[in-house]
């Protein structure tokens, strides 16, 4: 016998929306992995804030100080123009950290949608795992979780725009020679 | 085996032997004779404002705790328990009343004194002399304008003598206003799979790499109506200066040209650093507070900074083939809010693990290091000859031994000092050679 759930205690998001949002995030990952950076940029709203704080090792009682605050330094603290500059850099043919290019694979998991006050904005949490291979022997993993605000937009090619992205990495000391990648 | 390190650096001919970046024996001598003797940057005052505040860091490969004591002074001691050697504190930073070892519970106060031993009466029968078993303390700690330094060597010269003639240039970064400086919270920390000297030397002496290594970043940040070679990164080396200290420190910068700062952090912070702060002009004069542009600098051995861009960092050695970078952003305490905010964002965006500039340094250094695995790759010396013999010491604005901005004079100075120290030269000899050089140059 198959259980029929009228309403779920876990999620109130309907299957259709969940599917749509997951496909949107997969598409974004695909753009990055296929180095279609200009199409990737189009997925962000013009007022986007793309942010990745730094992180330090702290004891439990001071875990609230683990991530750098919004008025402190960050790995990424970008508006749309800054993201565009990063793409310009990569496309210059002289960005040696990406020339020859890295090979990336973005894996997006555990997508959880929270409905906000406005039906056209969603808070979307996801886990991210990025494998990056470079040259012959460079191997890096960047793992963390993301909090996105997705905004429904009729003008957007794919129905949604990323209006805010916060990325929380699970490394404090970054075990890579650079982050010439996007998460 | 003790390697004759002095033979590996020829500052007169401008050559270095690549083994200095690779060989384990040389690395061990370097830890002993350079890192365990030099004054090393530990922390900035603003990181530990209140009693009990601490950060953990390294001096060479030795972990230390830097603690604000109750009397306001700073204690620095090994982050190592004297019982069986457990790391006392495993957080990067925090606030504590004491430090308790997680192995058997020995407890140390904020100065590193052993104050508690579990079962002291029962197990030790009160026979342990706690006064003898405190954490190993760093014998000399000093503070210059909020920058806390320490040295393991009780016979090292005073900090100001160690900074020496570099102080004029360090002050352009550290002594701009009476209010002083502070770090913005948070730090960029990452790993380069390369020898620490590549980074320290580059910040000491290498403007030459910037237009090539960082071509993509300069391009991305340059507005369309600007000419990169003229306005942003002048290729004319006469438009800047490099300074080299006999003490191993060095810096280089453009003079009145090179708009790179405005493109990196924005016009307002650029103005603030280049003439917009009357107090800085009063204290430093116009050469340092108005006309220096896009400077790079290293205080020997592994403390580097970029005045204006205001990143500062330590290159922690982690074996001959790896370093950790710990980088912070410095601001003038009394800088206007918009200057501070632009600095916070601009510095992270350019000089950090994800920074538009610094991403490419990592690629260079890690590939150099990989090539050095080859036997033949280590057999031919590297060329450090740029500007050899063309220095002058009577510059009207910039004191000491100076040269054109595209130059390797400061690299030769850095490696000479490194070789002298690593080979075990005594402080008497080390400081005598500095005095002699100063006398010769009059
Ligand atoms: S190692 Fe610290 S108490 Fe035993
Ligand atoms: Fe560089």
Automatic annotation (TrEMBL), chain A:
Keywords: Oxidoreductase. The keyword DNA repair does not apply. Transmembrane segments: none annotated. GO terms for biological process: 3-phenylpropionate catabolic process. GO terms for molecular function: oxidoreductase activity. Pfam families: Ring_hydroxyl_B (PF00866). PANTHER family: 3-PHENYLPROPIONATE_CINNAMIC ACID DIOXYGENASE SUBUNIT BETA, BLR3401 PROTEIN. Belongs to the bacterial ring-hydroxylating dioxygenase beta subunit family. This is Uncharacterized protein.
TrEMBL record, chain B:
GO terms for molecular function: 2 iron, 2 sulfur cluster binding; dioxygenase activity; iron ion binding; monooxygenase activity; oxidoreductase activity, acting on paired donors, with incorporation or reduction of molecular oxygen. Residues 39-122 form the Rieske domain. InterPro entries: RHO_NdoB-like_C (IPR043266), Rieske_2Fe-2S (IPR017941), Rieske_2Fe-2S_sf (IPR036922), Ring_hydroxy_dOase_asu_C_dom (IPR015879), Rng_hydr_dOase-A (IPR001663). The keyword Oxidoreductase applies. It comes from the Bacteria. Pfam families: Rieske, Ring_hydroxyl_A. Keywords: 2Fe-2S, Aromatic hydrocarbons catabolism, Dioxygenase, Iron, Iron-sulfur, Metal-binding, NAD, Oxidoreductase. Belongs to the bacterial ring-hydroxylating dioxygenase alpha subunit family. This is Rieske domain-containing protein. It comes from Prauserella flavalba. The lineage of its organism: Bacteria, Bacillati, Actinomycetota, Actinomycetes, Pseudonocardiales.
